[in-house]
Amino acid sequence: MGGVSRRAFTVAALSSFTMAPRASAAPGPAAASEGPSAGRSAAAGMRGMWLATVTGRDWPSRAGLRAAEQRAELVAHLDSAVRHNLNTVVFQVRPTADALWPSNHEPWSQYLSGSQGRDPGWDPLGTAVKEAHARGLHLHAWFNPYRVALRDDPGLLVPGHPARKHPDWVVPYGGQLYYNPGLPQVRAFVQDAMMDAVEKYAVDGVHFDDYFYPYPVAGRSFDDAGAYRTYGSGFGSRAAWRRDNVDRLVREMAERVRKARPSARFGVSPFGVWRNAATDERGSDTRAGVQTYDDLYADTRTWVREGWIDYVVPQLYWSIGQEAADYAKLLAWWNEVAEGSRTHLYVGEALYKSGDPAQSAAWQDPAEVSRHITLAARYPQVRGHVYFSAKDVAEDRSGAMARVAADHYTGPAAVPR
């Protein structure tokens, strides 16, 4: 996301926060241990990592590697998950309206061969499922529903691409191309494209990230006026119509996944702020420049409360005590949202920030992420964590992942149910 990994887009979103100087350093273990109740072990439940393929963020190390080299790198990431006592890998298999499996609907991803539509000579998703299961890991297939391309020239797409066959489906925005979520035929198509993988492979989960309508770009508007005129009657505003479009995608996809593969779990990993309390009294005590409800038209709170999704992994990519968005405050807010629902709550952790000199002082301490796990263990709705991302788990430049493993993951964990 952004350049275009999730990390880059998250950083872009954070740049719109109203930031204040930190009053003090991040709390130490004693302060982090203060919470609503004690006693539950953080060792149980989800221990996941995202394995991102857009722009080769985590894998493959470069486009055009031989099939055997790509396979070896992929397996190495699975082995890294086992080595760190994780139990789940969330593998990005549809980064930009393309496929990391032989799809009946969309072309092979350019991130494999370097050229969109070129057969890489093997089946990455099929291999990932087989090799993950052989290692006792769950494999969740991660899809981006509406992003078509990271450049806004449709002529750069392979000639047979659905976006070229149906140019009326596509909206250029912020230098990229997106499918229009307001068109029922688009919603049906992207579901069919994703379900192709779900029906073919014994995936343990189906996963959406934080992209629905795109993140706002200053001075630009997403041109869906025609679709709104055609399909937006009965809604009080275009924003309400857009939210309904995304709600429909989530509900319909959940139903199709449960019907096609009842054992698979359907989850979403949204940006960590639903709404600020200043916008909505039900919101979090944050000052976010991006709010999923208002800017991405994703009513993630409702999805959790109504049980439309099996699990949610909010991206809580901030340190404890960060003033505009405090990890501790957001953790408590999401715990309350999940309470009483059927939706399992996992927490997305910004491992990529640990040891990055561009980040704040809190992230220079390799114990910061471990403190997150300690604090989260005191909230009964938190059932685990997912780390962004696989390359950072493997490289562990600051020792933060080793600290998490030593403090919390001293042995293997059963896969979450």
Question: Can you walk me through this structure?
Answer:
It holds the Pfam family GHL10. It is a single chain. This protein has 417 residues and is an alpha/beta fold. The chain has a single domain, classed as Glycosidases (TIM Barrel, Alpha-Beta Barrel). 34% of the residues lie in helices and 12% in strands. The chain has 15 helices and eleven strands. An eight-stranded parallel β-barrel has the order 1-2-3-7-8-9-10-11, surrounded by six helices. It has a three-stranded antiparallel sheet with strand order 4-6-5, with no helix packed on it. A hairpin with a 2-residue loop joins strand 5 (170-173) and strand 6. Helix 7 runs parallel beside helix 9 and helix 13 (368-376) packs parallel to helix 15. The longest helix has 23 residues, at 238-260. Residues 1-40 have low confidence and may be disordered.
Summarize the structure.
The protein has 417 residues and is α/β, with parallel strands linked by helices. It is 34% helix and 12% strand.
List keywords for this structure.
Family 10 glycosylhydrolase, three-stranded antiparallel beta sheet, alpha/beta, 417 residues, globular, eight-stranded parallel β-barrel, single chain, 15 helices, GHL10, 11 strands, TIM Barrel, disordered N terminus, 34% helix, Divisome_Glycosyl_Hydrolase
